[in-house]
From TrEMBL:
One Pfam family matching this protein: ACAS_N
InterPro entries: Ac_CoA_lig, ACAS_N, AMP-bd_C, AMP-bd_C_sf, AMP-binding_CS, AMP-dep_synth/lig_dom, ANL_N_sf
Domain AMP-dependent synthetase/ligase as annotated: residue spans: 68-454
Keyword Iron-sulfur: no
Protein name: Acetate--CoA ligase
Entry GO MF terms: acetate-CoA ligase activity; AMP binding; ATP binding
Domain Acetyl-coenzyme A synthetase N-terminal: 14-65
Keyword vocabulary terms for this entry: Acetylation, ATP-binding, Ligase, Nucleotide-binding
PROSITE patterns: AMP_BINDING
């Protein structure tokens, strides 16, 4: 691709062009991809309804751009290097040619099971190359994939299967994580008890653990591809056909299915990947995310592979067999760009620098951060000890809904500032609005981060409920996309993300809606009411603090707390398990019955002596009792 920015003035020039004439700007970038038919119009949009279309009437298949396009130029180059959980196990390299064959073959296999264009397929898998193969096979035949992170519970999985009425589930027997072996197929079995739409499941053998295979429903991956052709002509897709659905948490109710479409997502993930990471041909790039999250979609699979990069996929965890594993992998595969989350950096920082010392880390050129604000201490540790002071850090701000990186330094080009995501990428028109919706212009301002013009990889809808998309993202501030994040633009015009301004908490870089956790807690029969807030947590960024009113019914506090945690595990999964549960006699409420979370947030953060005037509450007396029982 010829759309690489090489200098700060180049960035400024491109940014100006992208704002003055977005159509020519994006059309030039899209030109370097393979289209079966070119678009009639670059963008059609309306943020009121909302209705956004990019590359209108263009025809393409994203996998042709990932696989077929690279076959002759880099067929023998590694596309994916897979590093297993156990360092004693051999790693696997798939060249572009091999990946092409495997994707085509699996595409034929799922087609033979009756999956076609527009059908939804759930992928619930460990971090194995087959997860990427499954995604691309769906995209090849025009089926819409929806990956569910394999740490979610059966209940959360069945909710997602039912929401999108999936026809097929692709899974594995189990998952190796550190020294644990986690059941996966068993969770699918449990989930499917409540799902009618699924006609077949394909099961990869990974751990070899005992599982139940139901005849007529379950088929092994190796049997499904047995004797199947490795050639497949890609389905022709419209730019605006759905590519995937990814469920994410919001401030209310159930997770919503964020919808991304083929054309715009393709252009933007490839463009942002190349420019943010300054990837050069031959480099080895590693993003440590799980494919179950948007980062895995856009920056392990789609972005890097569209750009013809070599992308590492890692099955395991950063602390197995020891806290030097990331660095061992960097040296082993001579990683050039390394992209991880602040929570992982903080967790490793807690082990000191000793686990890093045996490694050279001299191949590293660029370090990336994503998922939550990176605190200055972690930034410096990452910069000094991992990057040895010579690698720029790209602090990339974006969201499931934005599809790709929105605000970030371009590595080595944009001067960095610790804890700042710095400047928007070309094409991204940010505005800061106050709570009344007035634009705050100029520098040294702070407010709600909004976007006033569409970008190619933005969400198009929330699956099955367009009104929810409108209400959530386009109604708070009319004619703007509202991110839900607070932001500061400093005296240099640099952006610093301040965190969520809604009832969403960010736990280890994973989004959790407080309402969602409360709903799960309330499933426990002895819980009368609950309120969940975030509080600062050294490793996770934010921890989950639940205030719960219970009918103790002869139970001990300890016993009940344990049961409530188990309930949340079962309803959502371990990622939503509260770090702290406090049984309280009541919750502070306004006279109209609204829970005063601001007060609970302060108490949870250890700032309970600074609550301001609480006399207007309906029940000010509970506040003292809650403060007394608070745990820090
Ligand atoms: C937060 C992850 C500060 C933010 C790609 C956003 C960040 C939410 C950063 C989206 C960053 C992500 N600095 N905060 N560099 N990156 N966030 O959908 O609050 O899992 O709204 O997407 O994570 O989380 P999501």
């Amino acid at each position: 691709m010829s759309d690489r920015i090489h200098s700060l003035s180049g960035y400024m020039y491109e940014y100006q062009k992208s704002v003055q004439d977005p159509e020519s700007f994006w059309s030039r970038i899209a030109d370097s991809f393979h289209w079966r038919k070119k678009w009639d119009k670059v963008v059609d949009w309306n943020f009121e309804t909302p209705d956004v279309k990019w590359f209108v009437n263009g025809k393409l298949n994203i996998t042709e751009n990932i696989l077929d396009r690279h076959l002759y130029t880099r067929g023998d180059q590694a596309a994916i290097i897979w590093e297993p959980n156990d360092p004693e196990e051999e790693h696997i390299t798939l060249t572009y040619k091999e990946l092409h064959a495997k994707v085509c073959q699996f595409a034929n296999a799922i087609k033979a099971k009756g999956v076609g264009k527009g059908d939804r397929v759930i992928i619930y898998m460990p971090m194995v190359p087959e997860a990427a193969i499954a995604m691309l096979a769906c995209a090849r035949i025009g089926a819409i994939h929806s990956i569910v992170f394999a740490g979610f519970s059966a209940n959360a999985l069945s909710d997602r299967i039912n929401d999108c009425k999936a026809k097929m589930v692709i899974t594995a027997d189990g998952n190796f994580r550190g020294n644990k072996q986690i059941p996966v197929k068993e969770v699918v079995d449990e989930a499917l008890k409540n799902c009618d739409s699924v006609e077949s499941t394909i099961v990869l053998k990974r751990t070899g653990q005992d599982i139940q295979m139901t005849s007529g429903l379950d088929i092994w991956w190796h049997d499904a591809i047995e004797g199947v052709s490795t050639e497949n002509k890609a389905e022709e897709m419209d730019s605006e056909d759905m590519l995937f659905i990814l469920y994410t948490s919001g401030s209310t109710g159930q997770p919503k299915g964020v919808v991304h479409t083929c054309g715009g997502y393709m252009i933007y993930t490839a463009y942002s990947f190349q420019n943010v990471f300054q990837y050069n041909q031959g480099d080895v790039y590693w993003c440590t995310a799980d494919v179950g999250w948007i980062t895995g979609h856009s920056y392990i699979v789609y972005g890097p592979l569209l750009a013809g990069a070599t992308s590492i996929m890692f099955e395991g965890v950063p602390t197995f067999p020891d806290a030097g594993r990331f660095w061992a992998i960097c040296d082993k595969h001579q990683v050039n760009q390394f992209y991880t989350a602040p929570t992982a950096i903080r967790a490793l920082q807690a082990y000191g620098t000793e686990p890093i010392e045996p490694y050279k880390l001299d191949s590293l050129k660029v370090l990336g951060s994503v998922g939550e604000p990176i605190n200055e201490e972690a930034w410096h540790w990452y910069h000094d000890h991992v990057g040895k002071g010579k690698c720029p850090i790209v602090d990339t701000w974006w969201q499931t809904e934005t599809g790709g990186i929105m605000v970030s330094p371009l590595a080595g080009i944009t001067p960095t500032k610790p804890a700042y995501a710095t400047l928007p990428l070309p094409g991204i028109q940010l505005v800061i609005l106050d709570n009344e919706g007035n634009e705050l212009k100029g520098n040294s301002v702070e407010g709600n981060l909004c976007i006033k013009f569409p970008w190619p990889s933005m969400l198009r809808t929330t699956y099955g409920d367009h009104d929810r998309c409108k209400q959530t993202y386009f109604s708070t501030f009319p004619n703007h996309y509202f991110t839900g994040d607070g932001v500061k633009r400093d005296e240099d015009g640099y952006y610093r993300i301040l965190g969520r301004v809604d009832d969403v908490i960010n736990v280890s870089g994973h989004r959790m809606g407080t309402a969602e956790v409360e709903n799960a807690i309330n499933e426990h029969p002895k819980v009368i009411e609950s309120a969940v807030v975030g509080y600062p947590h050294d490793i996770k960024g934010q921890g989950i603090y639940a205030f719960v009113i219970c009918d103790m019914d002869g139970r001990t506090e300890e016993g009940l707390t344990k049961e409530i945690k188990e309930t949340v595990n079962k309803i959502i999964g371990p990622i939503a398990r509260p770090d702290k549960i406090q049984i309280v006699p009541g919750l502070p409420k306004t006279r109209s019955g609204k829970i005063m979370r601001r007060i609970l947030r302060k108490i949870a953060s250890g700032d309970g002596d600074n609550l301001g005037d609480i006399s207007t509450l309906f029940n000010p007396e509970v506040v003292e009792a809650i403060k007394e029982g608070a745990s820090h």
